[in-house]
Structures are given as structure tokens and as C-alpha cells.
TrEMBL record:
The keyword Flavoprotein applies. SUPFAM superfamilies: FAD-binding/transporter-associated domain-like, FAD-linked oxidases, C-terminal domain. It comes from the Bacteria. This is FAD-binding oxidoreductase. Keywords: FAD, Flavoprotein. Belongs to the FAD-binding oxidoreductase/transferase type 4 family. Residues 35-216 form the FAD-binding PCMH-type domain. Pfam families: FAD-oxidase_C, FAD_binding_4. The keyword Flavoprotein applies. It comes from Keguizhuia sedimenti.
């Protein structure tokens, strides 16, 4: 091992080979601070060539590699296990904007580029990169691609797989595949790009990407609507899609439990309604015509929903500040949950038409099994993705409730499967759901995944113990 580390120092420079426990600690703790792994070193290459050279050294020494971006994942996908044999490969120094082409509507960036910086670069040339996440100030493009991130605008623009045209990847053997092609049509064989997107670093290391840009909207409008049930929210979605079509960008379901937690822990944020309601939907329109056109469509949606008794009340943001305040309510939900205490998180998806029935039936099953548990349900209703989180009853200690996580997961995941859904919508599997997924994928599907892994990474050095 000392010879391996000496070779890494020669290649990268001593300052980019971290071995002291205190300096490695931020790279070894997961985002929720519930798990701490161990590593032989944290390696910080500054170029694709250095990544490739490091991978070759790891091959020769049989050192497992854990690729890491902003380390904002929620399923233990970007931290090593506790064996201490792996090297964490931090890509944060690969953070350059390589090219921007507003005519081709593409942006080429390195994997360590922070998402927010990519958004800013798109705005600089009058374009939009639409991926939007709560962690956009710290998550990286490589991590977004490795987990096929979704976010709040999937309804209109799709997830990260839909937003990427080409990749540069270092293979498990240390070769560099340059697939940085900004083409919408390229039907010349197997789609290698899609193989690496969503693979969580288990098949290779993404080092750069060509991203799709879009014309910047002329207007963005935000509204918060209040209603009684998730069924009402689905009816509201139908109305919004009928009236707005493609300009409907965001459609977020938020339960009253979520917003009460936000107001409790962040009292500077206030609900814009005099009385609480059981459910809310945050709507965003992005219009390429004009603000007046967008406003007329939004008013038509709200008027029709009120007339049909689908919603009980609504507020429309009249300024950028008010829009940000409404989005702040949504974005502070995970932070409020953390302040409230430990909770059991689920990142699930079901067909949109099944969401209301899923929520109602799963809520009932959980209350029967765990009386008094609190359902902190929110998420991207427009694309069928819910963050279906369960908090302890008010009179039960968090630590006691967390011990029952396997039982809670079984109730939730079994019902997700029954409704034709997925137990991981946008967070990935990582190590957290690696074993859980075997309950729901067929033997054929799992074997096909293993065959791909074995073919590309026969030494099992690429993020071992994740996904499979």
C-alpha cells in the first residue's frame, strides 16, 4: 500500500493525496451524517489524464475506487465501506467549463463542476440549463449524471439522462472514452452514454459531459394552491396540463405536515394562507412568449380549479421575491425534517394515476403498524416521484423509531411494488438499497445487470458494494 500511495503522490503531487484521518473525514461521512466509512486515501486528480493514470495504478495494486463529487447523495453511494481498503477519488478539481455553444444549445463541463455554476454559465449566454435541485450549490454534474438526478423540472425537461448528449468516461481499465458529441441524432451502435448515466460510478468514472441547453424563458410564474386530498391534486394536475400544455414546468405536492415542520423550525418563513389546508401544490410555468401570456394561462388554471371545487384557495407570486419565498417553503422541508429529528426516508415513484391511491392505502397501513407515525409526504407529483418520509410519533424517541426502519421499509416498498412503482426514483441505490432491490427486481434483470458489471469491471474495483 505504501508503494501505491507513493506512486499516487508522484503522479498528483503530495497535497492531492490525503491520508490523515482528520483531513479525510469530510469525504468519508455521508450527507445525512449517519455513516462514516474508511479509506486508504483520498485522491484528488486535476485532469482526465490523471484520473486515467490513477485508475491504472489502482488496477495494478487492486485498490477499489469510490468516485465522489459533492458527496450530497442520500443512499451511501459516494462514500466507502468500513474496510479501509478503498481510495476515494474526489473529482472536485475537474471543475472547468470546457465549451459553450449557444447555437447548438450545448454546454460542455467537467464532472466536478457545481450544478449552480453550470446554470449560471447557461444564463450568461441567454440559455437555460433546467436541472434544479435543493443541493445545486454543492452537488456536481458528475454526481447528477451518476445518479440520473431528477429535480423539480422533470415534468417539462426530463431527468439528467434526457439533459445529456455526450460523455467522457474513464473505464475500469484506465482507458479514456471520448464520447463528447453534441449530437441529437447519433444512431451508430450501442448507446454507451446511457450505460454510464445512473450507474453510480460502478461501470466507469464520468469526467466530462455535453449538456443540453434551452432558450431562456421570457417569464416564470409561481403559484401555491391549497386543497384537501391528493386526489384533488391529481385533478388539479389534469386541469393545469389541459390549460398550459408544455409551459407547465413544475408541479410539487406538499402535505400540511411538511409545511408545519418548516414553519416550526424556520419561523421567518410563513404560509400565505390564513388557515392551514391538508394538501398544497406548488406550480411553476415557464413561458417563451410573455409574462402576460403566462399570467393569463395561470389565472385560467386557478379559476377553473376553483369553479370545479378542486382547490380551496391559491396565491400567485407577483414578484421574484415572492416566488422565491414560495419555493423556499418547498426547499426547506428536508432541512426542517433534519431539525425535527431522525426520520425514515423513501424516494419512490409510481404511475401518476396511482399516486392518490398509493398515499391513502400506504398511510393506512403504516398507521395500523406504527400508530401515530407522521407522514412527511412531498415531491414531484407531475412525474410520479414522491419523497414519502415517515417521522416518529411525537411521544416516541427518534432512535427508538429508527430501529424499526426495516419494518417501515417493507410496508412502503411492498406497496410501491404492488402499485407498479420503483423504490428509487432519483436518489439511486448506493449501498443503502443494494439488498432491498433484490426483493423487487426479477432474477433475469439482476443477472443482466451483473453480466454488464462483470464485463466492464471484472476486477470489481469500481465503487464495489453499490447497486449490486
Amino acid at each position: 500500500m505504501s508503494n501505491f500511495l507513493d506512486q499516487c503522490r508522484t503522479l498528483l503531487g503530495t497535497q492531492y493525496v490525503i491520508t490523515s484521518e482528520s483531513e479525510m473525514e469530510p469525504y468519508l461521512i455521508d450527507w445525512r451524517r449517519r455513516f462514516t466509512g474508511k479509506a486508504c486515501a483520498v485522491l484528488r486528480p486535476g485532469s482526465t489524464d490523471e484520473v486515467a493514470a490513477i485508475v491504472k495504478l489502482c488496477n495494478a495494486a487492486r485498490v477499489p475506487i469510490v468516485p465522489q463529487g459533492g458527496n450530497t447523495g442520500l443512499v451511501l453511494g459516494s462514500v466507502p465501506d468500513q474496510s479501509g481498503t478503498a481510495a476515494v477519488l474526489s473529482l472536485t478539481r475537474l471543475n472547468r467549463i470546457r465549451a459553450v455553444d449557444p447555437v447548438n444549445n450545448t454546454l460542455t463541463v467537467e464532472a466536478g463542476c457545481i450544478l449552480e455554476r453550470a446554470q449560471e454559465e447557461a444564463r450568461r449566454v441567454g440559455r437555460l440549463f433546467p436541472l434544479s435541485l435543493a443541493a445545486q450549490g454543492s452537488c456536481t454534474i458528475g454526481g447528477n449524471l451518476s445518479t440520473n438526478a431528477g429535480g423539480t423540472a422533470v415534468l417539462r425537461y426530463g431527468n439528467m439522462r434526457d439533459l445529456c448528449l455526450g460523455l467522457e468516461v474513464v473505464t475500469p481499465q484506465g482507458d479514456i472514452w471520448n464520447g463528447l458529441r453534441g449530437l441529437r441524432k447519433d444512431n451508430t451502435g450501442y448507446d454507451l452514454r446511457d450505460l454510464f448515466i445512473g450507474a453510480e460510478g460502478t461501470l466507469g468514472i464520468i469526467t466530462a459531459a455535453v449538456l443540453k441547453l434551452f432558450p431562456a424563458p421570457k417569464a416564470q410564474l409561481t403559484a401555491l394552491a391549497a386543497m384537501q386530498t391528493p386526489e384533488d391534486a391529481l385533478n388539479f394536475l389534469t386541469i393545469a396540463q389541459d390549460e398550459c400544455g408544455a409551459i407547465l414546468t413544475g408541479f410539487e405536492l406538499i402535505s400540511d405536515v411538511c409545511l408545519q415542520l418548516v414553519i416550526k423550525h424556520f419561523p421567518h418563513l410563513q404560509l400565505p394562507f390564513a388557515q392551514p389546508h391538508l394538501q398544497y401544490v406548488l406550480v411553476e410555468l415557464s413561458d417563451s412568449e410573455s409574462e402576460d401570456h403566462a399570467m393569463s394561462m395561470l389565472e385560467a388554471v386557478i379559476s377553473r380549479a376553483l369553479e370545479e371545487s378542486v382547490i380551496e384557495d391559491a396565491v400567485v407570486a407577483s414578484s421574484i421575491a415572492q416566488s422565491r419565498a414560495l419555493w423556499a417553503l418547498r426547499e426547506h422541508i428536508p432541512l426542517a425534517q433534519a431539525e425535527e429529528g431522525k426520520n425514515i426516508k423513501h424516494d419512490i415513484s409510481v404511475p401518476i394515476s396511482n399516486i392518490a391511491n398509493f398515499i391513502r392505502e400506504t398511510d393506512d397501513l403504516l398507521q395500523q403498524a406504527f400508530p401515530g407515525c407522521r407522514m412527511v409526504t412531498f415531491g414531484h407529483l407531475g412525474d410520479g416521484n414522491l419523497h414519502y418520509n415517515v417521522s416518529a410519533p411525537v411521544d416516541v424517541q427518534d432512535e427508538t423509531f429508527i430501529l424499526r426502519q426495516p419494518e417501515v421499509n417493507r410496508v412502503v416498498h411492498d406497496n410501491v411494488h404492488r402499485f407498479g412503482g420503483s423504490i428509487s426514483a432519483e436518489h439511486g441505490l448506493g449501498a443503502l438499497k443494494r439488498n432491498e432491490i433484490t426483493q423487487y427486481k426479477s432474477d433475469v434483470e439482476l443477472q443482466l445487470m451483473r453480466n454488464i458489471k462483470n464485463a466492464l469491471d471484472p476486477l470489481n474495483l469500481m465503487n464495489p458494494g453499490k447497486i449490486l
